[in-house]
Amino acid sequence: MQWLTEYREDVPRVPRFDLTARITHWGHTVTFLLCLFTGLVLFLDGVDWLATIFGGYRGAGLVHRVSGVFMTLFVIYGAVFGIRGLAKWIMDLFRFGVNDIIFLVLFPLEFFGFKVKMPPQTRFNGGEKGNSIITPTCVLLLMVTGYIMWFPAIFPAWLVSICYPIHDLAMIFATFMVCMHGYLGSFHPGSGESFWGMWKGTVRADWAEHHHKVWYEENFGAKAKAE
Amino acid sequence: MAKLIKVIDVTKCTACRGCQVACKNWNQNPAVIEPFTGSYQTHKDTNAETYTIVKFNEYVDPAKGVRWLFRKHQCMHCDNPACMEACPRQAYSKTEWGATLHDINRCIGCQYCHYACPWSVPKYLKREDVVTKCTLCANRVEAGLKPACVQTCPSGALQFGDQGELMAYAQERVSFLRNNGFPEATLYGVNEMGGCNVVYVLAYSPDKYGLPVNPKVSGQVSFWQNIVQPYAGWLIPLALGASVVSFFTTRLIAASERAPEEGGNE
Amino acid sequence: MSPSFGRGVMTNHIIDMKNTDCALIIGSNVAENHPITMKWLLKAREERGAKLIHVDPRFTRTSAVADIYAPLRSGTDIAFIGGMIKYIIDNNLYHKDYVVNYTNAAFLINDGFDFKDGLFSGYDESKKAYDPTTWDYQRDAEGKPIKDPTLTNPRCVFQLLKKHYERYDIDTVCRITGTPKDKYLEVLETFCATGAPDKTGCIIYAMGTTQHTVGSQNVRSYAMVQLLLGNAGRPGGGVNAMRGENNVQGATDMALLFHIIPGYINSPMNTPDHKDLISFLKKETPGAANLPVSTLAELREAVKAGFPNSGFKINTSKWVVSMLKAWWGDAATPENDFAYHYLPKRDEKKNYSHMAMFEAMYNGEIDGLFVNGGNPVVGGPNANKEQAALAKLKWLVVLDLWLHETAEFWSYKAWERPVENPDVPKMEPKDIPTEVFFLPAAAVYEKEGTASNTGRWMQYRWKGAEPVGDSKPDLWIIDQLCKRIKKLYEGSTKPEDEPITKLTWGPYGEGEEPEPVLVGLELNGYIGKFEDHKPVENFTKLADDGSTACGVWVYSGCMTTKPDGTLDYKPMWRDNQDNSKTGLGLYSKWAWCWPLNRRIVYNRCSVQPDGTPWPGDEARALFKWDPNNPDGDPKTGNPGKWVGDDVPDFNKYLAPAVGPGAAVPFLMRPEGVGCLFATKKDMKEGPFPEHYEPWESPFKNLLNSQQNNPCIKVWEPDKQGTADKYPIIGTTYRVVEHWQTGALTRNLPWLAELMPNMFIEMSEELAKLKGINNGDKVIVSTTRGDIEGIACVTKRLKPFTVDGKEVHQIGMTWHYGFNGYAKGDPANRLTPHIGDANTMIPEYKAWLCDVRRA
């Protein structure tokens, strides 16, 4: 059985993510996962075996904090050096339209492997747009509440106590999205090519045209070439 | 084993603070010297190395004039402790006679308990990265002694013993006070938080002593403990499960259809 | 209290307070400074429904638990109590039977006695002293006082008392004290109700009473109220002096004061009437001055026969001779006046009190000082001056647990002041020639011995831990000091060295450390040689022929012999059973108290003159007369004696009677009764307490034209602050968390954290007036200096309205100094060098100052 979609250099490829975006993405991925597993140690009310991996609860706490700091640094790095990419990303989110809604409605079928005819999508499809809103929001919440809980003495008690459920909820939603995103972006046969977009920076042109027709047309299609 | 409770009759307290020193002595806690800021109560609240303090409140009784109200503050040892519920490491436990104990060897310093407690009793000790609190001198009580604060109290404001006996005494004190010029006199800690093992005899309503009138676990904490933690988390396994199903169904469907055109549909 | 009752001691004991019906706490903050007292007072309230009244310039932790709190302006106790005396008499609330039989109310007073505008008869303006000849009773041919039991004779004490306090009506009193009238009336009604025969009330006082220029008269006024209400000598009653230190009673018993030798006998002076032993004894034995005796043997015969106006002090010769025998042993013989001449004689014209000593030191008259457990740089009045005085010494020895402020008075930090003040001396270590020696002392738990508590209980304390490092018990230090001084004088044949070379010194055991029990033997007294360890039974067995020796006669009886022949030191007794049948809490077999283990002194007053309990007060009767008791008077052989729970403080063989032949209730008084009128030299300012303003006061005296106590000695007239510059009344006090100068407690982190810094308590009104916020740093200034502290702005303090004018008062603790964990400026840099006319206790409690934001 095939796990990942095969990387093919023999077909035309188009650039999808620049280096900054990729560094930010993967840096964030690693730190998020570290934070997730060290955090689950407490969320699941004391998972001793998991804590042991990180050198006990204190080790897990330390990894959690250090990862959190690095995560913040990656986010800042991405925001500063990838400001143009970030702007483009945000602009694309504003193109949310009918096609995206149709995508979201039909998506469950596609998800489980049924053939559906999706309307043309922009750079990010409806699902990705949803992920792009929910995950960064949750991550920002996680970071803010995390720092507040880290230094509770300098914040009012009500704020600190509000941070506990928010941190948990943000974690839950973010993790939910991450699970879906991780799966779709890698092992899902239909969208698996996007893994290479984030790994190598390029995707197969035919896949791009098929999945993100609008984006492809605008950037690499006949019209774009003509300009 | 019958429940043992501590009764604090604030009307007999002279704020000598012998209890504070006895507590430090028994627990071998170092002094926490904070500068004087305008009140005899030199610590604003208990801290990780000061399990109990006497709170000083000035109150102007419309009938009696200025009153200086003293109240020894420490862990209430609730029957259903919020700290115990919030603790992710099960560091808290209840003795069969009622003390709420905290095991610092299990504690990881997350301080969830501090924010869960309506009196914010558990306090964080930065140096050791753990939370600490009053133990009701469980190690003394189990050796047949009274808690250090009760042992040292010269005025008889602190009593410790069998719940039945002491509750009768406390009720008697309240009715005595009500008949002797303190109509607001009340007990505190009997119904609060589902019952506590520390019961106050108060001459005025609890707020005059800086006590929350109806102590509850705060909304955000109960939302977190009762809704988010037990239920919301299921979203994650849901996502994982769906992904696993999808992993197989996509491949099975693809295999059954044997779609020839490569790349087009991936 | 001695002029009123005969002894200057707390009449009852601490546990006895649970027997009271009403406690008037005035000039004391028992909850903070005597917490155990509060325990028994609260018990009285819970079990007997007793009322607790607190009268104090400040609302303290005592006020917080009291039933009634009445503010009074610092230094106006006599006005407050004078009004109470008037109220008692006007409303017939006095205990008539008691007053007639147990006080001198019925005694007629010399016709020459008079009182006009603040002055009694006999005042000499130039000497600032009275000639008290007229302050005496009218006497019959035998010299016995004449009485009028109807109390109607205009010259009887009762009528004179009534007349004297006529002026102290409630409105005048409240105008002086600033007490709200309704509160004052509530106090009067509540406390004076204890004049009923079945009620007792106690008065509890401490330094808030004594640390005034009229301190002794303040105490007198309390004693008089208790005599009028029939509360003295009864369980739950009395005038209870709360001692400021755990062993201050023991220290005064041992003659820590300059004017007495052990056992409260006046110390010898360089005057003709003290020139030899017999002159001294004639002078100091009441009623003996005019006896036709010229030798000790003749005096002995006269004592045996008895003479009037003497009281129990007729035995003074036995106590003095036994003390001299204890000091000089075989060298004290009848031929050399029992070594009376070895005793140092003080200069009649000189004063040797604390303040006088420091004034002399400041003037360079003293070379060396030995400070044992004191800390004058923090605790002395006008501490700036006392600190400068130390710099005039050649040497200073400090014996303490910690290097406290006095031990380091020469350091830079000792001279730091919050503001530059040209009047305050400023020095540097290089300017100070004093050589300072520090002897580390063992703490109380690191040594053995006795301490006598405020209720006269002499309790033995065993060692709990070994001393730290090189520190030594002070008994060891004194022992070594004496042994080494004696060694220095060894072999000297000079007669002036004999007081040292002939001094007996134990031996107090074999070891390096003296045995406290053997010191106890010397206190108790012994027969024959010290080494024989034969304790004398008690002070009634002391003799003046040299056959007995006794260090302190009041302690005689504290030791006996066990059946096995070893010494039984009664302070070691630890029987935790209350021996009283009615639950009065006497605990007579727990430790031992002087005199003769009488837990309540003057206890004849606990029953009626006829020996039956006061009506309705059966449970508090300490004795009853048992006419058929076979263990009767050994002298007469008649059966019958008084039996009861306590030890009788009267002749236990005398059957109850009224009038002559009755046992006297106040046997230490020459007249045998409690004194509403203090006779002759007993009080320097006069027989009745009269209100005078504190030395520094913003007000004119409203009751007479004498502004201050006419008999006080003014050391520094230029340092008297006036209200125009210093409009605020200042007072000092202690808190429960610290002890005295804080040398002990400020070095203990657990206590330092409870009271970490010097603070100044003030009302919200004053704070607003001065723009001070709670927690601000403030400067307090007087003519003596300035200190810095943190403002503690509180609702508990209120300005006083005195004679229609508003006056503010601030309070501060005097615990702080520049060493230790808890630091702050010493409040005594502000207090004046002025003291009570009788005792020279400084007026720490009322002086003028100003306060501003730092």
Kindly state the percentage of residues in helix of chain A: over 70%
Radius of gyration of chain B: 26 Å
Oligomer: heterotrimer
Shape of chain A: elongated
Through-space gap between termini of chain A: 44 Å
Please name the CATH topology of the largest domain in chain B: Alpha-Beta Plaits
Structural class by SSE content of chain A? mainly alpha
- Cα gyration radius of chain A (Å): 20 Å
CATH superfamily of chain A: Transmembrane di-heme cytochromes, Chain C
Q: How many beta-strand elements of chain B?
A: 10
Number of domains of chain A: 1
The number of distinct β-strands of chain A equals 2
Spatial order of strands in the largest sheet of chain A: 1-2
Helix content of chain B: 25-40%
Polypeptide structure, described:
The complex is a heterotrimer of chains A (227), B (266) and C (854). Chain A is mainly α and 227 residues long. Chain A is built from eleven helices and two strands; from the N terminus they run E-H-H-H-H-H-H-H-H-E-H-H-H. Chain A has a two-stranded antiparallel sheet with strand order 1-2. Chain B folds into two domains: 4-216, Alpha-Beta Plaits, CATH 3.30.70; 221-257. Chain B is elongated and about 90 Å long. Chain B has eight helices and ten strands. Among the domains of chain C are: 2-244 and 675-682, Dimethylsulfoxide Reductase, domain 2 (3-Layer(aba) Sandwich), CATH 3.40.228; 607-664, no CATH class; 717-853, Barwin-like endoglucanases (Beta Barrel). In chain C, helix 5 packs antiparallel against helix 8 (170-177), helix 5 runs parallel beside helix 11 (215-228) and helix 16 packs across helix 18. Chains in contact: A-B, B-C. Chains A and B meet through helix 3, helix 7 and helix 9 of A and helix 3, helix 7 and helix 8 of B.
Task: Considering the chains and any ligands shown, give keywords for the structure.
heterotrimer; B: 266 residues; alpha+beta; Alpha-Beta Plaits; 4-stranded mixed sheet; elongated; C: 854 residues; Dimethylsulfoxide Reductase, domain 2; 6-stranded mixed β-barrel; 5-stranded parallel sheet
Put the structure in a nutshell.
The complex is a heterotrimer of chains A (about 230), B (about 270) and C (about 850). Chain A is mainly alpha-helical.
Secondary structure: elements and pairs:
The complex is a heterotrimer of chains A (227), B (266) and C (854).
Chain A: E1 13-15, H1 19-43, H2 48-53, H3 56-81, H4 83-93, H5 98-111, H6 126-150, H7 157-187, H8 193-199, E2 202-204, H9 205-211, H10 213-219, H11 222-226
Antiparallel strand pairs in A: 1-2
Helix pairs in contact in A: 1-3, 6-7, 9-10
Chain B: E1 4-9, H1 18-27, E2 53-61, E3 65-73, H2 82-86, E4 92-94, E5 100-102, H3 112-116, E6 123-125, E7 130-132, H4 138-141, H5 148-152, E8 158-162, H6 163-179, E9 186-188, E10 198-202, H7 219-231, H8 235-257
Parallel strand pairs in B: 1-10
Antiparallel strand pairs in B: 1-8, 2-3, 4-5, 6-7, 9-10
Chain C: H1 2-5, E1 22-26, H2 30-33, H3 35-48, E2 51-56, H4 61-65, E3 68-71, H5 77-90, H6 96-102, E4 115-116, E5 119-120, E6 123-124, E7 129-130, H7 157-164, H8 170-177, H9 181-192, E8 201-205, H10 207-210, H11 215-228, E9 239-241, H12 248-253, E10 260-261, E11 265-266, H13 277-284, H14 296-305, H15 316-328, H16 354-362, E12 368-372, H17 376-379, H18 383-390, E13 395-400, E14 435-440, E15 449-452, E16 457-461, H19 474-488, H20 498-501, H21 516-524, E17 526-527, E18 548-549, E19 559-561, E20 567-569, E21 592-593, E22 623-626, E23 641-644, E24 728-733, H22 749-752, E25 759-763, H23 764-770, E26 777-782, E27 785-794, E28 800-802, E29 805-807, E30 809-813, E31 847-853
Parallel strand pairs in C: 1-2, 1-8, 2-3, 8-9, 12-13, 13-14, 24-30, 25-27
Antiparallel strand pairs in C: 4-5, 6-7, 10-11, 15-16, 16-21, 17-18, 19-20, 22-23, 24-31, 25-30, 26-27, 26-31, 28-29
Helix pairs in contact in C: 5-8, 5-11, 16-18
